[in-house]
Amino acid sequence: MSTYYAGLFADIGILFLGAMSVYIILATGQLSLGNAGFMGIGAYLASFLTVELQWPLTAALIAAALAAALIGVVVGFPALRLKGIYLAIATLGFGEMVRSFLLNFDRMGGSGGFHGMKHVSLATIWLWAGGILVLIVLLERSRLWLHMRAVHDDEIAANLVGLDTTATKVGAFGFGAAVAAISGGLFAHHYVYIEPGNFGFERSIDFVLAVILGGSTVGPGALIGAGLLVLLPEWLRFLADWRLAAFGVLLVLVLLTRRQGILDKPLLDRLTFGGLRA
Amino acid sequence: MTVLALNGVGKRFGGIQALTDVSLEVPAGRIVGVIGPNGAGKTTLFNVITGAYRASSGDVLLAGNNITQWPSHRIMQSGIARTFQNIRLFASMTVWEHLLVAQPRAGGLWRSVMPIGWADAEARTRAEDALVFFGLEQYRDVIARTLPYGIQRKVEMARALTAQPKLLLLDEPVAGMNAEEADELRALFHGLNARGLSILLIEHDMPFVMSLCHQLYVLNFGVLIAEGTPDAVRNDPVVLDAYLGTEAA
Fold first, then answer.
1. Which domain holds residue B114?
2. Does residue A135 sit at the B interface (CB-CB below 8 Å)?
3. Same-domain status, B154 and B170
4. Is the ipTM of this complex over 0.95?
């Protein structure tokens, strides 16, 4: 594979994991616009562990994921008292807070960024991405996921059929944060250089976009979304300066015709012969 | 044995006293009804029992445990299930998924994160039983919200029963149903009751309540004004005056 395509596929894997982190939280009906913040936490923490403490990458990624999950739960408790647009704005604020913290955190390079990571192979990125995808596809058939969907559909009714809606939402937030951190750790070890600007608001929006475009009701939708978000601008290169505008038009067209995103349950069932039903 | 007991329960919203000193009991294996005009506080009563509202005074006891301050989900996990006056089904779920979602959690976290098809044969059997019991087999994989009203009611009741409650709270279960559907439901409730389930219901349909309940409470402006067997309540002058009107006698 050429380096060009290897780079693109690495980007897809990393974006897919970021999108997945949004998808998990969205499954409980909460929109997070701050997941780049968790990605940044994962990127910096994993890099610190591998570069300064010489940890192996796998251990560093797991530690970063656990730390981000913990922060996600701590942030989630107050934030999840908010709903809808208010929660979205609060999470956006969290993401910016992380970015400006990193900007001023001289121990990890501040605005100058941080480097010294060993380059991670494409296979490793996809081992993580594939592993998380399988995990989510299985989880989507579990009782826990049904509980998350119940909270998504009607929180009051969910509470009154005996579900702990707060625990469900906070748990999903923590889990999403962990996946975003893995995405960040892999990002850091793919680009071998990170700076706070890598984890800004635009990246959070990319995550959300990948989910909405690819399909927000099934996990593999995020994969389709991430693939298109990375590849489409490349395929449209022949349009030169107009390519980003054309990309925008395509995006609007897809959403006008398929509000649920490209991949949904009926389509997925047809593609998998319905064999994965719960 | 008493499944549910309310001791002097009051609920105040700002300046409005929605419930005043309400005491009632649901003995095990009985069907108890609460009747009263609109705005009498019947749904508030249910919301206090289920923890959706906190009682301002008094105690709610479930099988002897004081549940007054418990959060809703804990109360529901401890043996109460309810249906709603306006049906509340989950918009994205099929009938089958509704029969799985409320089931009591057994086997810890591990079982709840594994695919249901692999890990939880017990839950599937229970859902299958409910599907057959309510005659919902043909709707198994249909999104429940797209079904006719009467069937949605059944799905909601089936969901409540898969939680394996000791006590079922029914909020106007025959509202919007015709006589035939109401008869079918009455037979269903008698059947569930015969299996040992205690039921507390709120209902406007007088013939339905009178023919179903063992015991009735009459609520008016948040105060219990009468209690007794359906016959006793039907002939109670206070009730006649407040609610039923003389022609119902």
1. 81-164
2. no
3. no
4. no
